[in-house]
Design brief:
By secondary structure, the chain is an alpha/beta fold. The chain is 27% helix and 27% strand. Helix 1 links the parallel strand 1 and strand 2. It is globular, with a radius of gyration of 18 Å.
Length: 299
Amino acid sequence: MQPTLLILAAGMASRYGSMKQTQGFGPSGETIMEYSIYDAIRAGFGKVVFIIRKDFAESFKAGFEPKLKGKIKTEYVYQEMDSFLNGAPIPEGRTKPWGTGHAVLCAMDAVKEPFAVINADDFYGRDAFVKAAAFLNTECSEKRYSIIGYELAKTLSDHGTVSRGVCQVDAANNLVSIKERTKIYREAGKIVYEEEDGKHEVPVTATVSMNFWCFHPALFGTTEKLFHQFVKENNHNIKAEFFIPILAEDFMHQHGGHIKVIPCSSQWFGVTYKEDAPVVKASVDALVAAGEYPSNLWA
């Protein structure tokens, strides 16, 4: 059974200011996620599931279906604010869904095989997909997941703060903990993150999650219970987000699972701010010029 690629594309792109998931960066107008899909096909993935919002589903499908037809199976899942609430009220004043862990949960009925999860607006590189496919095909189990790890210094934006899951890893390269840091940036030759109690330094060589995970479908059952508990506890916090690292911590500490951290040699780049766009375009152009990708992915 070939693994599935789950792409988180329901984000509101609030910091970027437009629908960055569908902006073209390649020579023939390819989006960042098209390069991910192309790499996934080369690595042996059999299906791509897009997590999107219903309100832009029609235009989204119109852009992707003609390109991907006959190349990989496609499916669409909608992340809405009331998804998996099971009748619980939406907190008054909440304006967006519950985060990346909630997005994964929304794909429960569409994914029955080992699967990878990625962001729509991050460029991960071919090596990441080759390593993910190898893990999903040979090592993934109900007790063993993985994460593709990137070096923090190579994942920052020059145009503002970024959110990263900072990983602590043991001697066997298994994840010990992952902490979401939502305001990371360079300052005076160091890398720092901000919290309510002030600034804290992060080692330049720290391994971070760029939200590229490899999971077994057994994840869905425990995630559903965890999400219901999260909603109960955070019903009055309209900004609370059910992040994927919450699922990872629960898997490791409550269910005895192991998450292998797989270092990746690919250069990551992504679009957090509008000012990042020219850098991304130049990076894609360089890869095309080097022969890593054709000038038209789907020709």
